[in-house]
Design a protein that fits this description.
Helix content is 63%, strand content 4%. With 222 residues, it is mainly α. It has a two-stranded antiparallel ribbon. A hairpin with a 2-residue loop joins strand 1 and strand 2.
Length: 222
């Protein structure tokens, strides 16, 4: 148990170690119950993949189970508050990959992006598997930079995401606007999320689609 609890689930040190054993056990048990209740509709319609999701969840350490449950629970709330019309059923394979990639994420900003990604999948099954790979390779500073590029190049497109994500960052990280060798710019360009034209960084088609996928579906565009 000590090893499970050492995982930092909120980004401020080994907080779980300060939680009394009985209370921590209750938190983990609640997380397990909540997760399996949320995933049960998928299990009912896709028994094989549903059982695979449950098996993958069961193999997580306790702190990862808490994170995975929290992400799925918040995603379900956002999906239920979305005004978008349901088109397709969520793909169990996407839920599985999100669990595998997000359950050890301790940064709250990135946890929120994972939550939004799941929420969009729950709304209309619209998430492309590539977006999971992209998100798994981003840091909070990368997310900030991507939003800043979107704000400058396409402010109407990015406003709801900018308000949501930038406010989550507890400390703004100074970034260089026009330095082509800046690592974050190069990394986002390598992921084909941004491109440079006449010294200005702009979103690519993939960048726009990715931002849509990690936007909160419960927030109306403005």
């Amino acid at each position: 148990m000590a090893e499970d609890r050492s995982l930092d689930i909120v980004g401020i040190g080994k907080l779980a170690e300060a939680i009394p054993e009985q209370a921590w056990t209750s938190i983990v048990n609640t997380a397990c119950i909540t997760f399996k209740q949320l995933i049960s509709p998928l299990t009912a319609i896709t028994s094989g993949t549903g059982r695979l999701i449950e098996a993958r969840f069961d193999r997580l350490v306790d702190a990862e189970k808490v994170i995975a449950s929290q992400i799925l629970s918040r995603a379900a709330d956002k999906a239920s508050n979305s005004s978008r019309k349901r088109k397709n059923k969520p793909k169990p394979s996407i839920i599985l990959k999100v669990i595998e990639n997000s359950s050890s994420e301790v940064d709250t900003t990135l946890q929120e992006l994972w939550t939004n990604l799941v929420a969009n999948e729950l709304v209309d099954g619209s998430v492309h598997p590539e977006f999971i790979r992209i998100l798994s390779r981003l840091s909070a500073a990368d997310a900030q930079r991507l939003i800043e590029v979107a704000q400058k190049s396409e402010p109407n497109f990015s406003i709801k995401l900018a308000l949501e994500i930038l406010n989550l960052l507890s400390m703004r990280i100074p970034l260089i606007e026009y330095e082509p060798t800046n690592f974050i710019n190069a990394h986002l360009s390598n992921l084909d999320l941004i491109k440079q034209s006449d010294g200005i960084w702009n979103l690519t088609v993939i960048g726009r689609a990715f931002l849509e996928a990690v936007s909160d579906p419960s927030i109306e565009a403005t």
